[in-house]
Amino acid sequence: MDTFLLDPLAALGRATFALCRTVGNVTLFALAGLSHVVRPPYYGRMFWRAFIEIAWFSLPVVALTALFTGMVLALQSYTGFARFNAQSAIASVVVISLTRELGPVLASLMVAGRIGASFAAEIGTMRVTDQIDALTTLSTDPMKYLVAPRLLAAIIALPLLVLVADILGVMGGWLIGTYKLGFVSAAYLKSTFDYLQAEDVISGLVKASVFGFVIALMGTWCGYNSKGGAQGVGGATTTAVVASSILILALDYVLTEAFFAR
Amino acid sequence: MRDMADPATRPADRPAASGVPKIRMRGVRKAFGAKQVLDGVDLDIAAGRSMVILGGSGSGKSVTIKCILGLIQPDAGLIEVDGKDVLHMSRAEREALGDRIGMLFQNGALFDSLPVWENVCFKLLAQNRITRAQARDKAAEVLAQVGLDGSVGDLSPAELSGGMQKRVALARAIAARPDIIFFDEPTTGLDPIMGAVIDGLIVDCVKRLGATAVSITHDMASARRIGDDAAMLYRGKIVWTGPAGTLGHSGNAMVDQFANGEREGPIHMELRR
Ligand SMILES: Nc1ncnc2c1ncn2[C@@H]1O[C@H](COP(=O)(O)OP(=O)(O)OP(=O)(O)O)[C@@H](O)[C@H]1O
Ligand SMILES: [Mg+2]
Description:
B: alpha/beta, Rossmann fold, binds adenosine-5'-triphosphate
């Protein structure tokens, strides 16, 4: 603390240096993990375990999030749009904001909380109880066995989850639109699909894939490098969730810029 | 049960192997932060023999073994296995060597997400030497060797007692019949009889498989039973090596103090850390 007050520049330099080193380490870890995805042997069992954990067990929380988001979206836009008589645009607003933005981001944030934490805790515990070292002595590369299957599973599972989220979100909007706001069901659905473009959905799914990679990467990386017993694993878990959530939001901007700012 | 003290079965009676040592360490140094844990370890372990490493708690015995296994990268020094420098090996060579090595971790390090039988046969499965169908039978067979019932195979490691976990870990270390085996405190946490059984098993591995064993133990009776040779690690260096049979009356004041558990002597335990 003293040095921080006395010499803020040095502290800033140290922090920047540490950040660069961390970014470098995470990048190397990611490249190593991805390279193991394509090189045999493949651990199908580990892949399925991770896939089921992400895709199937996240389904309820993602579904509820999407449903309520769609409902709120319809309600909010109704009250807002009524001010300039644009209520008819509600269906399009709901579907476009869901597929492009809210579906991928909210689903990924929910999954980051569940999966990032569970990956970091499981791998972190394996690290501090020597299980990762044990893998090495049992002719198994821990990067291949623990990291690669999780990365692949998240990259594939997130788009599927987001697809479900898109559908349920639109359904939530439709429920509110027809039962509460007095739209005719067929008209609501027609205007939902009239203005929707394939690009909206696909860009959302691509985002989801990237976010899935980030979640699995931060979870496995934090766990893999955790030190010092239960406290270390707790710290790794927190870092994994916070870092992946922030990265999701930051990357969301970058990807949106890349897709739509043309 | 066989009497392990029977002189006819004592490993120390076998002739020392000649030629290149199986494992050779020279000037191995390792520090964690400011703490110099290994400060120039020199150690030769002959092929087909059983070496016991002694030393106080925290003296760096586990670190020494992990350096040989490549789990910890030493700061300096040379480590050779079969005359080959393991610190500068290619990845493929390292993996090939790893296939021939078994390790029992001090805390067991069992995979708690897998049932016991899969733990035991993990290496055989990883090397595709057996199918998953065969693995259960194989696991039961190896578990029997460490005095566990085959039905233990279906439990998860978390459901076992500490001593049972140790024995499962031991079964996992020897299941693939390695050429070099490391045992980090194999009998800690076991009752005396089971301790003697495990000691017998280690002796068997060395004798029947012709394996080279490196064990860490704090139990002098066990050290005399399983060891052909013994080495003492103190303040980051190997201060003595000699036949395990002479522990307690070796003539080296430090070793004898340690082996006999005397408070007075050349070793001063650093109680403040
Ligand atoms: N990964 C690590 N990071 C930091 N320090 C470590 C690490 N591993 C070991 N040490 C330190 O190295 C020293 C030696 O540890 P080691 O585990 O080798 O002791 P040991 O001789 O096996 O003791 P025991 O008989 O109690 O198992 C200890 O002081 C420990 O604090
Ligand atoms: Mg130890």
